[in-house]
């Protein structure tokens, strides 16, 4: 990754031939049609394109009812919020009306000597209002419970405790849903396209990330995964296999200081899943690169995660990102109008493996390369005959030397005897 500091050099776009300009719309249409056919695993906005079906153990959602309510959409969450309070107030309102009905308070409304359970409770509506006042602790002072009603005192205790539990549960659920950092991820942006080009003599896959807010993401880290189906050597088919892509976790470059837009770099080496992929091969591949940026929101301390993906048609071979950071009078300025812009650069169309092989061959010693060429091309017939004669003479000399050594050894053994 690196800071995009704009260089003073002017970047000139290459001029395309007339025929290429005419064929360009056709190529774009073909790419768009191919992109529509590819089923994404993760959408560009970070939503996972996976639906869970035939889940028979639905009771597991009820065992974690708090998370279930938090994960619901806002319209369902608000509906349940209003429904829980309304049902609670109606239930306890009915219980207050039932106590008044069983005690005969409704039959002695005009009797001043009668001591009711709740003063001024004369109908179900007034009982419902008293239930709301009790649970919300409003206390207007018009309807009050008397000390001559033990069943009313017991019901008051039960409603107070249950009302506190309902308030804690529902208010806590709403607070967690409001403070969820999902919306914070809306201000974390990824470049529309990823690019493949040379960097420091190596072929690299790069994409850009940025943060639109002035409040920073703390402990930000980046990950990337290649989503591609594969078949093992044993014949097992693995759909949507996930392969890690090194974006600097062995060097610490995956830990981001995301103050200005950064270019995340994945070096295509022997451990990279793009090692054998060339420019022509990339156009035919059905693959998807999923990138995940996560960190803590500085304002709340909650963990935030932003996701995006790049399919094969969105990975541009032979391009680089346009710089967006310029030095002004006393500060750096980021131009987000150029955040997604790329420009073409000279990049070999072969794969990283082929590029490494060509580089290794160019670095071979001269003597080794000459010997290999001679061995591959073969010697002339006259040179081959001379070489065979020389080899035959050397073998005869070695055999005569061996015989002389054997004779000397025999003579020495006889003299000793």
Automatic annotation (TrEMBL):
Site (Role in the control of polyamine-mediated channel gating and in the blocking by intracellular magnesium): 167
Domain Potassium channel inwardly rectifying transmembrane: 42-181
Signal sequence residues: none
GO terms for cellular component: monoatomic ion channel complex; plasma membrane
Localization annotation: Membrane
Region entry Disordered, spans: 374-417
Substrates-to-products reaction catalysed: K(+)(in) = K(+)(out)
Biological process, per Gene Ontology: nervous system development; potassium ion import across plasma membrane; regulation of monoatomic ion transmembrane transport
Transmembrane segments: 78-99, 153-176
Inward rectifier potassium channel C-terminal domain ranges (all copies): 188-358
Entry-linked Gene3D superfamilies: 1.10.287.70, G protein-activated inward rectifier potassium channel 1
Keywords: Ion channel, Ion transport, Membrane, Phosphoprotein, Potassium, Potassium transport, Transmembrane, Transmembrane helix, Transport, Voltage-gated channel
Pfam families, A to Z: IRK, IRK_C
Membrane topology of the entry: Multi-pass membrane protein
InterPro entries documented for this protein: Ig_E-set, IRK_C, K_chnl_inward-rec_Kir, K_chnl_inward-rec_Kir3.2, K_chnl_inward-rec_Kir_cyto, Kir_TM
GO terms for MF: G-protein activated inward rectifier potassium channel activity
Family: Belongs to the inward rectifier-type potassium channel (TC 1.A.2.1) family. KCNJ6 subfamily.
Name under which the protein is recorded: G protein-activated inward rectifier potassium channel 2
Source organism: Scomber scombrus (Atlantic mackerel)
């Amino acid at each position: 990754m690196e800071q995009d500091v704009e260089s003073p050099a002017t970047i000139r776009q290459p001029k395309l031939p007339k025929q290429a300009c005419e064929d360009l719309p056709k190529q774009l249409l073909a790419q768009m049609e191919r992109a529509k056919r590819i089923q994404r695993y993760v959408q560009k906005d970070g939503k996972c394109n996976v639906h869970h079906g035939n889940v028979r153990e639905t009771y597991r959602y009820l065992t974690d009812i708090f998370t279930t309510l938090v994960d619901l959409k806002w319209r369902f969450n608000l509906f349940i919020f209003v429904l829980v309070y309304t049902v609670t107030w109606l239930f306890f309102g009915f219980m207050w009306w039932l106590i008044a009905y069983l005690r005969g308070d409704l039959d002695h409304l005009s009797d001043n000597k009668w001591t009711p359970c709740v003063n001024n409770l004369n109908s179900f509506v007034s009982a419902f209002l008293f239930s709301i006042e009790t649970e919300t602790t409003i206390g207007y002072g018009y309807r009050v419970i008397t000390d001559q009603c033990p069943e009313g005192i017991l019901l008051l205790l039960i409603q107070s405790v249950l009302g506190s539990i309902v308030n804690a549960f529902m208010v806590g659920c709403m607070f967690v849903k409001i403070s969820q950092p999902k919306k914070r991820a809306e201000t974390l942006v990824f470049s529309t396209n990823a690019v493949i080009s040379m960097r420091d003599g190596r072929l690299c896959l790069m994409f850009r990330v940025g943060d639109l807010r002035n409040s920073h993401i703390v402990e930000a880290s980046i990950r990337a995964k290649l989503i591609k189906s594969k078949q093992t050597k044993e014949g097992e088919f693995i759909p949507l296999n996930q392969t890690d892509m090194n974006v600097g976790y062995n060097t610490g470059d995956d830990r981001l200081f995301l103050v200005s837009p950064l270019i995340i770099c994945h070096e295509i080496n022997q451990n990279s899943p793009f090692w054998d992929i060339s420019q022509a091969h990339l156009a035919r591949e059905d693959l998807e690169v999923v990138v995940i940026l996560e960190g803590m929101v500085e304002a709340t301390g909650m963990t935030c995660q932003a996701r995006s993906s790049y399919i094969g048609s969105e990975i541009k071979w032979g391009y680089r990102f346009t710089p967006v950071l310029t030095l002004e009078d006393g500060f750096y300025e980021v131009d987000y109008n150029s955040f997604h812009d790329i420009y073409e650069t000279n990049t070999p169309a072969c794969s990283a493996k082929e590029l490494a092989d060509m580089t290794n061959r160019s670095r071979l010693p001269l003597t080794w390369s000459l010997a290999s060429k001679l061995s591959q091309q073969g010697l002339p017939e006259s040179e081959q005959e001379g070489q065979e004669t020389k080899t035959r003479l050397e073998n005869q000399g070695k055999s005569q030397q061996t015989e002389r050594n054997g004779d000397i050894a025999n003579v020495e053994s006889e003299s000793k005897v």
